[in-house]
Amino acid sequence: MKKLLSLPPNLVGCFHDITGLSDTEWFCTNDPVGRKLGSGGGTTWLLQACYEAHGNGRSFDEWLAADRRLLLHAGGQSRRLPSYAPSGKILTPIPVFRWERGQRLSQDLLSLQVPLYQRIMNQAPEGLRTMIVSGDVYIRATQALQPIPDADVVCYGLWLGPEIAKDHGVFVSSRQTPTQLKCMLQKPSMQTLGQLQKEHFYLTDIGVWLLSDRAVKVLMRRSMRDGEVTNYDMYGEFGCSLGTDPTIDDPEVNDLKVAILPLPGGEFYHFGTSHEIVSSMLDIQNIVNDQREIMHHSLKPHPSMFTQNSEVEIKITEHNQNLWIENSCVSAQWTIAHENIITGVPRNQWKIELRPGQCVDIVPIGDESYAIRPYGFNDKFRGDITDGVTEYLGEPFTRWAEERGIDAAAIEGKDDLQSARIFPVVDNINDAGLVLRWMLNEPYQQGGRVVWNEAQRLSADEISAQANLRRLVEQRRENRAQNWSFLSHNYAHSVFYQVDLDDAAHEFAANHIAEPTPLPADEPLLTRIHDAMFRSELQRLNGKDGSESEGRAFSLLREGLTQTVLAQKQHPRLSVYSDQIVWGRSPVRIDIAGGWTDTPPFCLMEGGNVINLAIELNGQPPLQTYVKPCRDHHIILRSIDLGASEVITTFEELRDFHHVGSPFSIPKAALALAGFLPEYSAEQYQSLAQQLAAFGCGIEVTLLSAIPAGSGLGTSSLLASTVLSAINDFCGLMWDKNEIGRRTLVLEQLLTTGGGWQDQFGGLLQGIKLLQTGKGFDQNPVVRWLPSSLYTQPEYRACHLLYYTGITRTAKKILAEIVRRMFLNQHDELALLREMKQHTIDMFEAIQRENFDEMGRLVRKTWQQNQLLDSGTNPAEVARLTSLIDDLCLGYKLPGAGGGGYLYMVAKDPEAAARIKQILRENRINANARFVDMSLSDKGLQISRS
Length: 946
Prior knowledge:
Structural class: alpha+beta
Low-confidence stretches: none
Number of helices: 33
Strand content: 15-25%
Helix content: 25-40%
Number of strands: 39
Shape: globular
Radius of gyration: 33 Å
């Protein structure tokens, strides 16, 4: 999705430099200086400018149809938010939310806005390619988005009360057809809204509009006159011409098909005024009040205080409410009150008093100078400064000027406070402090008066036009670099270990910040895990070997996952006759949604959702284990498929299960967990032979895996659970399937292969099911079985195809890299994993409704998500293979970690399935590639005795 931004003119030239965003993905321009185009005309201007820059010889219609675009209007004067007028409200720095993980200390309003707009656009029908939004709001959707109708215009709104709706546009609909727009009203009275509710619904416009190409061109025609873009309002004119009963008669606009949608779980936070940046931020921080969900417990004296990218040397008390300090130095001799906003202040030793409602903004001008701008918390920056009602610093401007001996009528630009040249430009810090004191509260102070009289003075508009934004951003970067050390030192009461630690490590390295002091051993385990991986990444970025710290992170994770189970010592007792064999057999699993959300540490932090199905191959459970007594007091391990065997006579030999790829690592670890090593046994023996003698016999374990390694079907986990189950029955340990699943997770941690819980539960439990866990180290999935008709009914069964690609890839390296990013709270990965969790619920509902086509399309989306998580999931050979059959499939994916193994396909219909088989048989990518018959297992893991 291309992003087109309308910005303040001064920001356009340096936007890509100061944000680091790509100029191929992000296009920006400004409305023509001195001309008001309105939201409709501004949209037309923005589209025309982008087309002229990137049309590449195509017609406008061709260019418009080629991409999806987000148009974001953020070019206003910001009269009521002076602190961020120079850089645009869109780049307002936003503090990390106390209840959120994976945010960046450098985040701004723009970075928070875009993900929701991307979600909406991803769900929109193909015909809706243009989204138009506002730049001074943060909107959240806390529930899954509903299907978006295929209309010319789709508008989102919120259910808000009349006391709020009266100040905004509202979408009116009949109670009989609530998604069909009847008309749009601008700022209706509360009386009007009350009358409407008798027979209508109304949604308050939140400024998120989707337009078809047809609607875009109609809007553009309305915004043009004689070949020139003119002033046209998208909401008051275009919007009021939409619907079945529009308030403006415009046949071409009236003819557009319109749908209105409530944003599910919608929340709307405005950042348009000085008051709103504090109130909206407070509301966001208080979205979550459950203390269990708040990741750090600040020692702030009052919640409505926000300090970021700053050095504050004074004590802040509970009296300093509604406080915002950003990119500033508030040195030891400052005195502050409440309703104070302090931005841009360079390092200083000033003696400043801020009274209630007084704010300070200092803006770099040129290479060395600063514009000094004090203002009032509620100043509107509007009105003639000579008329006695225009307020400045919370009092009439005329009074302020009179106290300082200023002739208001002589000030250039006096017709409007926004254009009045009253803000001095100084070239040294001392003069800045003097004139600031004089402008605030010391009109008798001669030094400040002299500086103001002799200085060049700018208006608010001119400050925005002339601000050196590169200097402003560099000062912010330097301040943030100073903050990192404080945050890491004060980790117990700061956001440090909940932020994106990958981003933090890069900032530490780039700014040569020393590694934090080691954490005490009694800190929470997850904190120590995050800390170890952060140190590893920082060491790596600094050119050092971070493997020891990385190993410590994984070791601590193993400790957390295994300590409860390993504390439960086992009493193995022979539970079969001397001539009996315990026979375990298990299906494998295919995950169709949510894979990776079951993987620690993500599931420990946020819980996991997975849908998978237990399948048999060629009519048989492909994983089998046989356990039987043997006469000699030793352990014999055999693998039928590998043709290997090993005899174990000592504890040391049994303890040697850490070699990944060893044919018998799994049964050795399983026997250890069953109590055949001293550290896992409730009773102690001098030797393995002595323990087996007391047990009553030796043990022979035989494995059969009738499936290639690296299959992607959860083979290693399910072989482990099959072995554990058979040994459990043989030794009378009384573990149920849930305990087998838990112990499989522990076993994989002992082997250092890692992994989640979905593989083992996918085969332990029959059929197709949703598996869900909450957060915490005790990961016991709750199971919700789904109907099997989409897999077993004759019209669907033939559509499920399983093809062995002949390409193998072990999951350990893939797993380690993805888990490393989980440890680091890496923002993009956490966002994707959360999306995958929600996607799993979408899949659950599609299968519940027995919607075959939707289920297949969601499998395709699962595959897309897997590739976003790990680009190596889809190697070139697999991509070539799937390109042959793509148009015959609703969806397909490589199960598990991907990269090879089996390819699962959902054909559009039985005829398409037959065609797929023909194509792939004619185009085999290697000698081992083949189709394998799959069927849904209705039994799961089975254990029986001879």
